[in-house]
Amino acid sequence: MNKKGFFVKFILFFVIFLITIIGVLIFYSAKTVIGFTEYSVDYSIGDYIGFNLDSDGIHFGTVTTDFSEKRSLVISTDRDANVRIYVYDLEGVTVDENKFFLGQGEEKTVNLLLNVPLNAEMGTYAGKIMVIYRKP
Fold first, then answer.
1. Element (DSSP H or E) covering residue 8
2. Whole-model pTM?
3. Burial of 25 (0-12, 13-18, 19+ CB in 10 A)
């Protein structure tokens, strides 16, 4: 077999292998994820403290540097679920507990913590929090 024929067969095998692995992962993910909720989260850093009472997301308002703030989020489910919480594209925001089990009808309050360092730049910061529910 010449080198070109071997290379073509190798590439074909590799592509089929990748498609198979991706297909298995998509199938497995679809079978285990039973739901998700996405929240928009934002805050601004300024030289004053301000409130944002809008109900369209989780807002920390306007804060100053070297500042900490907390917001609570109630997580609930209508069936048994392993819950995982992810923070995307939002520096300074963490979740006090991001992985836990909830039984059917249970709810849990988690805290979202904002820690703004002293050297933070003024501006508006926005990201997402994703709560994913998986079969136990």
1. helix 3-32
2. 0.73
3. exposed
